[in-house]
Automatic annotation (TrEMBL):
This is Multidrug resistance efflux transporter family protein. Keywords: Membrane, Transmembrane, Transmembrane helix. It comes from the Bacteria. InterPro entries: EmrE. The chain crosses the membrane at residues 5-24, 36-56, 68-89, 95-119, 131-152, 158-177, 198-218, 230-250, 271-304. The lineage of its organism: Bacteria, Bacillati, Bacillota, Bacilli, Bacillales. Signal peptide: none annotated.
């Protein structure tokens, strides 16, 4: 239950991304600056936090232990996640991005076979391929159904260009984020805490973001003061606070695929936060009856995930031995 509440809190801060990225695009800001500035602003905050916790040495050690894999999965988790998300903001409102982003719930569950679990037996440790947790998948599909219901009233006004350019990049991001996050947890094996992991992944991807910023400077010019301000808010709210909270929750649940799926499913609440945020800041209309039903379905799905997680935890505590993810 603790992991789920942390995940929901992270979703509240994540919702800022969808709202502000859209407002930056509406005011003429480029997605190139929106994506790169976020990570530039994250670095000093993370450096200060990790330095205060005396963790810079361990972070550097892990970054250079397997630099190629560290770079690859950091790029998947951060670059292939955030660049498509900011690009899509040029074509879709925040509510549509947040809604499509919920595909990450199902993607996270379906990624289970890409990972192995180490089980201690009488003959030693053995590796087994993870299985897709059927119950978690079914509950995630319930949440996804609620997301679809919320989208129905709005999707009628979306043209083909918005559909492809606004949705396809988000689908890529929705798969890349849980894949990169889980692969990094597998690579590090719990040797770095959440702040160290986010810092290491951010530093590893800086060369890419510097390249994006240089390209932006040459093609669209420097960012406006307004975009700098909003990107700073996104960096603190979503990049530092939300990412740290979410990674903290997934770290706590990394040994249990069902619990991990429940944590990833908390991202469904981003849609609710984003919708009400846009109502206040952008002035979108109140949700209709169908959308309200969708919100209720999402809440029911989250409740089922919470119940399942508590039940699994109780069963795990009663079991004599457990495996660990590898």
């Amino acid at each position: 239950m603790k992991e789920i509440w942390i995940g929901i809190l992270a979703s509240l801060f994540f919702a800022v991304t969808f709202i502000l990225n859209r407002t930056m695009e509406l005011s003429g800001g480029s997605w190139l600056w929106s994506s790169s500035l976020r990570y530039f602003f994250m670095v000093p905050f993370l450096l200060a936090i990790v330095a205060y916790r005396k963790g810079l040495g361990e972070t550097k050690k892990e970054m250079f232990k397997k630099p190629v894999m560290f770079f690859i999965w950091s790029a998947v988790a951060f670059v292939l996640f955030y660049a498509p998300l900011t690009y899509a903001a040029a074509y879709s409102p925040g509510w549509l991005l947040a809604g499509t982003w919920q595909l990450t719930i199902v993607a996270g569950v379906l990624l289970a076979p890409f990972f192995t679990i180490i089980v201690k037996t009488k003959s030693g440790e053995q590796k087994f391929r993870q299985k897709i947790p059927a119950v978690s998948l079914c509950i995630s599909l319930i949440i996804l159904a609620g997301v679809v219901l919320i989208q129905i009233p709005h999707a009628q006004s979306v043209d083909i260009q918005t559909l492809w350019l606004g949705i396809l990049p988000v689908i890529i991001a929705a798969v890349a984020y849980p894949l990169g996050n889980r692969k990094m947890m597998e690579l590090l094996g719990g040797r770095l805490d959440t702040f160290q992991r986010v810092l290491g992944m951010t530093l590893m991807t800086l060369p890419i973001w510097i390249g994006v910023a240089i390209y932006a400077l040459l093609t669209v010019g420097p960012p406006s003061i307004d975009q700098l301000t909003q990107s700073f808010i996104v960096a603190v709210s979503s990049g530092v606070i939300a990412t740290t909270l979410f990674f903290m929750a997934t770290d706590l649940a990394r040994d249990n695929q069902g619990k991990l799926a429940a944590v990833e499913a908390t991202q469904s609440t981003e849609l609710i936060f984003a919708m009400f945020g846009e109502m206040i800041l952008v002035g979108i209309a109140l949700p209709g009856p169908i959308s309200l039903v969708g919100i209720v379905v999402i809440i029911i799905g989250m409740g089922l995930h919470s119940f399942q997680t508590a039940l699994e935890q109780r069963t795990k505590e009663q079991a004599p031995g457990q495996g660990r993810q590898a």
